[in-house]
Amino acid sequence: MSGAKSMSMELPLDQILRGECVETMRTLPSGSVDCVFADPPYNLQLRGELRRPDDSLVDGVDDDWDKFSDLQEYDRFTRAWLTEARRVLHKDGTIWVIGSYHNIFRIGAILQELGFWILNDIVWRKSNPMPNFRGRRFTNAHETLIWAARSEDSRYRFNYQAMKALNDDVQMRSDWYLPLCTGNERLRNEHGLKLHPTQKPESLLHRVLLASTTVDDVVLDPFTGTGTTPAMARRLRRRFIGIERHPDYVEAAMSRVARETPLADDAVVTTQDKREAPRVPFGSLVELGLLPVGTVLCDKKQRVNATVSPDGTLVSGTKRGSIHKLGAQLTNAPSCNGWTFWHFERNGEFLPLDVLRQESLDLAKTAAATAKAAAAG
Amino acid sequence: MSGAKSMSMELPLDQILRGECVETMRTLPSGSVDCVFADPPYNLQLRGELRRPDDSLVDGVDDDWDKFSDLQEYDRFTRAWLTEARRVLHKDGTIWVIGSYHNIFRIGAILQELGFWILNDIVWRKSNPMPNFRGRRFTNAHETLIWAARSEDSRYRFNYQAMKALNDDVQMRSDWYLPLCTGNERLRNEHGLKLHPTQKPESLLHRVLLASTTVDDVVLDPFTGTGTTPAMARRLRRRFIGIERHPDYVEAAMSRVARETPLADDAVVTTQDKREAPRVPFGSLVELGLLPVGTVLCDKKQRVNATVSPDGTLVSGTKRGSIHKLGAQLTNAPSCNGWTFWHFERNGEFLPLDVLRQESLDLAKTAAATAKAAAAG
DNA sequence: ACCCCACCTGAATCTGATA
DNA sequence: TTATCAGATTCAGGTGGGG
Fold first, then answer.
1. Residue B42 covered by a domain
2. Least CB-CB distance to A119: which of B131, B137, B334?
3. pLDDT per residue over A271-327, tens digit each?
4. Partners of A298 in the beta sheet?
5. Which of A82-91, A353-362, B67-76, B298-307 has the least mean pLDDT?
6. A173/B133 touch (CB, cutoff 8 Å), yes or no
7. I want to staple A152 with a disulfide (CB 3.0 to 4.6 A). Which of A117, A323, B87, B348 is the partner?
8. Do A228 and A287 lie in a common domain?
9. Chain B partners of A372 at a C-beta cutoff of 8 Å?
10. Other beta carbons less than 10 A from residue A286's beta carbon
11. For residues B163 and B211, what is the distance between their CA atoms, to the nearest angstrom?
């Protein structure tokens, strides 16, 4: 199955090598690892300081390792480490690289140019992202992982059934909903400050390793940091090779790994992903055309009415607001459930908006069932 | 506001030009459009035909326009049309490009190389994606849109409040959950077969246009296809320029546009950003007598207070300054929004100055309406 | 033990008009 | 071009103290 381990060369297994990533990879034999997980610098290019609306300062990434003079230098760096990673990878191996819009397009383009074969782009949707404090863009609520085989004809590993099981017995999709690394999981120094600015959550690596490797596979992480990859590899009984430049991180990561207990033989697919509540923003009913812009809504006794705007707000005279806010305002109530307060006309009778909400959920459910049936054949 | 339309050149507005996209863009003047939405060919590398588990054939993308001999050719094509798009775009304009992992990394990298400034990458999560029939990858359940300004210093449009309203009054995130284009919305030929393999849903364009353009803005779609962009532009009272190579699509799109009814003046209005509201100098509230000289203001928790001067400054002890300056000074904050910081007493409760600002705007609006009625009567 | 609330934090390319 | 200043802007979740 996994070819790399059959080579049985003298690999520095279950170690974190201190050193530059390209140089250190050069010391590893070709075709010797089954999987690479890489979390390279993102080249964020942050400029001034950023403050929250309450004037508190955002603790941004200002480390030297994320500073590049320009795109060309970042591309050279990227091409260099991806070239080595490809050499070290077994012919049937796969690579994962995570990034944001700052760097992921560079990475993806270079991966393709080097002959990697992209299998999926995976979206890590953050359940608790940092908001956009200035209101100038959409909340940057996700990061992207690229999953690629070493080449077009690699016979790569994908544990389809394990992923399906992990996802309530429907195919695992390319969008993953996972929280950030916070709380106890986040490594901290003696002052309680985060040890590393970009520590990844264990749930992410758990899914990555479970999807694309098997027991005893060798996983290489060229940017190990605080060692999430080694820790999850040990827990899931994979072998790891870490590479990390900073001695403090090497030490922190190794003691973290030492605290991990490998799972027993029979323990495998256990973790469940956090299910999302099927929230329906009122605006989406408008976008979907279930409720045309300009529709006039009224309360049950038709004492007040309001018109639907393109952005999902309601307008009544000079007043504008969400279905809840405007309902409260027009009735002088402290609060109001707009879903039950506002009614629309259908076949001569007035129905609450809640009917439409339910219908939109049913639509989604039917579509999902159809897709599943098609998949089942 | 939107710079492009003020140029009033002879643009082929509200038309779909039949022709090759680069050539046709060359006929348009520089800086003449406010927004570009592009759904270019995806360079799908489907090797041979794809069959479902029941051996039925998947009607994939295999039209002539999607055949590119290799990555280099696709890059050349991409660079060519993006270069023209950038020339045609107003300096403060933005571009949207949608793609999948097959092409989006080429597009993103070239966008950056041409000097576009990426604002967000947006994930369109499909509520009803096609399942992965072979079980060899994750279900490809999303597509990616890149939203970018023409350059780093573009003062681009983002209708923050409208997006927030559309999402139940929390910031719109970078992941959008929308269904595929199916059912009645999908254009079909006389045999009931879909007219175009990749028709985009109207809900997607509704959100795109509502986020990044305003009424009468000019939107260019260089790969118009069945005309979802023109149709939504017409509905939302934006102007459009379409470009499409295939005469059948041009015809289908134009008759589709003709079936759209533009929203009425008052129906197309969305929640306004405060930045766009008319500016009210604090001093004018004093002049208008809405806030008498000598009134004592305090912060919400009544920890500091200050007195209103005739010139619209506040005085607190020996300190004097604008509502913003003094608020910042008294709280040792780098900045302060005096409108929300300072409160005045009315009927026993403390209200922020912002209430008075709104009231002065309402007064002005009422006065204008009265004047208009008098003139008409 | 439990609830409530105040406070803290996260890979962030985070203002714009006017003088 | 640069300096100045008005004023717009946050969500989910964890932690910890007090009642």
1. yes
2. B137
3. 445 556 667 899 999 999 899 999 999 999 999 999 999 999 999 998 999 999 999
4. A305, A343
5. B67-76
6. no
7. A117
8. no
9. 131
10. 23
11. 6
